[in-house]
Amino acid sequence: TKTAKLLRRIGIESVLKLSGRSVRRRRYRRRFGLPGQIVRLVNSPIDLFQFNVDPNISEDVLRWLITALEIDQPGRGTVYAQEVREYIDRPYRSAPGSELWFGEQAGGRPGLLQDLAMITCILSKSGSGEELAETALELGTGVPMVTLGSETGLRDRLGLLRITVPPQKELVHLLVPALDADGIARLLIEEGRLNRPGKGLVYCTPVARGLLDASMQLGYQEHPASIEQIVAAIDEIKQNTAWRSRFPSLDADSSFRLQRDFNEVTVVCSEERSGSYVEAALEAGAGGATSERVSRLRPGDAAGGARERCVFIVAKALTDQVIAALQSVYAEGREQEGTEYLQVQRVPFTFSHRG
């Protein structure tokens, strides 16, 4: 793909690709000259790319990608960086001359926003991803990204209730202003009825910097600029999204409370190795695992290098022992060849129904 080739140009050889879809609204004029508009949800296929870089050049890489892929144009996509703690020592090596590429693109490009957060909703009911995406669009938070996964562990502990909870999951990813993350998550939980048993899980991870896709409306427009374009222009001028803050964040006013002090633990490994990691994490205290199939784009890989991305949301107090259990599996040797990442990042809040 074009993105993978561009990344190899600056020395990033291993890239993970996850397929999904974006959800937007499309406006249509009513037939026969009738007043008003018709609004429908439309889905577009997207590819999500993940790779690790040295933190010292992450901002340069983001700016270069914005230029090379024209991501600052409406509807072209989203780019962001998150700070993680990596437990597999594979240092990033820049390609010779890559600094020149960064230098050539240094000026004249839009600034990166610094105050963002990623909200991930893991939904149990088939089709609920579309419903939640529509709620997110009504809130004006940004373009929802939907992917597919499966769950292990938590479902097995629900007893007879697990019969009504399928293992297949829809994951909705939303890049939002950090100041509104609590309030947006609360509204998504209430609208999506995620405060009921077996409905799903919501959690938030910090975003160090990025540029979000604000093109939520397609089709017919009455005015020269849409409200999304105006918002994006103000973001660029102010270099942040703090001015957008509009959702209260008060647990006392809610019928449920967001849970604090958690971490996201992620393992990316070959499909045949994922079972060993999941079993070790569950035995160490992880409540469950959400898995997604990804492809590794790397020169010489046959059939795209199939991989499994396993995510555990773990209480901070249990994180060290879960990591130790995963490292023990990795240290056995046979797991090392197919393991790409073992990393942790902070989760400011999470929520799932607790009976």
Outline:
The chain has 355 residues and is an alpha+beta fold. It has helices at residues 2-9, 58-69, 98-104, 128-139, 181-191, 227-238, 274-283, 316-331; strands at 15-29, 37-50, 79-81, 85-86, 116-123, 145-152, 168-177, 200-207, 209-211, 217-219, 262-269, 289-297, 306-315, 339-347, 349-352. The strands form two sheets. Strands 1, 2, 4, 5, 6, 7, 8, 10, 11, 12, 13, 14 and 15 form a 13-stranded mixed sheet that branches.
Number of helical regions: 8
Query: How much strand?
Result: 25-35%
Q: Which class do the helix and strand fractions yield?
A: alpha+beta
Query: Main beta sheet, described?
Result: 13 strands, mixed
* Strand count: 15
Radius of gyration: 21 Å
Unreliable stretches (pLDDT < 50, length at least 5) are: 160-164
Would you give an account of this structure?
The protein has helices at residues 2-9, 58-69, 98-104, 128-139, 181-191, 227-238, 274-283, 316-331; strands at 15-29, 37-50, 79-81, 85-86, 116-123, 145-152, 168-177, 200-207, 209-211, 217-219, 262-269, 289-297, 306-315, 339-347, 349-352. It starts with a helix and ends with a strand. 25% of the residues lie in helices and 32% in strands. The protein is globular. It has 355 residues and is of the alpha+beta class. The model is unreliable at 160-164 (pLDDT under 50).
